[in-house]
Structures are given as C-alpha cells and as structure tokens.
Amino acid sequence: MTASTQLLGQYRAVLAAGEQMLDSARDGRWDAVAHASLRIKSMTGHLAGKVPEQVLDTRENHERLAILKRLIEIDAQVRHLREPWVASLDRMLSPESGNRPRNPLGGTAIRTD
Predict the structure, then answer these.
(1) What is the pLDDT of residue 112?
(2) Tell me, what DSSP letter sits at residue 18?
(3) Which residues, in sequence order, are CB contacts of 79 under 8 Å at separation 6+?
(4) CB-based contact 67:10 (threshold 8 Å)
(5) 40: Cβ contacts below 8 Å, ≥ 6 apart
(6) What is the pTM assigned to this prediction?
(7) Beta pairing partners, 102
(8) What is the mean pLDDT of residues 33-58?
C-alpha cells in the first residue's frame, strides 16, 4: 500500500465516521454522536503533522479537499440539529434579513442598548 493510498484511506475513514455521526444526530442518538466525535478526534490526531501535498497527487488532493468540505458541512448540520435555535439566529443575523442595523461607514453596527 502506497503512502498516498494509506493517507487518503484515513481521510475516507474520518468521512465515514462523520456520516455515521450525522445519522445518529438525525435520529437523536446523542450518546452515539459523542462516541463518533471521539472516534473522529482520535482519527484526525493520526493525520496531524502529515503534509498531504507531499504525498498526494493533484487528483487525490482534490478528493481530500472534497472530504474536508463535506466534514465541515456535516459539522454544521450536527450543530444545527443539536442547537436548533442557531438556525433562527443565523436567519435573523443574515444580511438579507434586514434586521441588522447599518453603520453609516458601510459596515454593520452592533446595538448595545
């Protein structure tokens, strides 16, 4: 097994654990979510310190980046399932909502009252 195959296999295993974590969150099995989270933390610890660009070719690196993007999406979905109030806060604070006060200098102002 080549180093690139092994490294990409580790990323795929993390993704599979992430998908399982999301399924558990959708089912409301928060103990399983916590267990999957610990597994993912352990697996990503093995990836720390490795420089993928030195091991992976362009195609493999694109797959690695797609896996990382999916893991970020999974994390966001789990957070929204765990804390549903965050979705309403996101909607309220989005620029399209019109609820954010405007700073005359062009940025957004924060109310302190």
Answers:
(1) 56
(2) H
(3) 86
(4) no
(5) 14, 17, 18, 21
(6) 0.72
(7) 108
(8) 87
Rounded to whole angstroms, the Cα distance separating 12 from 20 reads 12
**Residue 108 is which amino acid?**
T
Task: Report the share of the chain in percent with pLDDT over 70.
Answer: 83
Give residues with Cβ within 8 angstroms of 92, minimum separation 6: 99
Joined tokens for residue 53: 């660009």
How far is residue 50's CA from residue 15's CA, in Å, rounded to a whole number? Answer: 17
Both tokens assigned to 57:
């070719």
Span 49-85, pLDDT tens digits: 777 767 888 899 899 999 999 999 999 999 989 988 7
Distance between CA 94 and CA 89 in Å, rounded? 8
Asked if 25 and 78 touch (Cβ cutoff 8 Å), the reply is yes
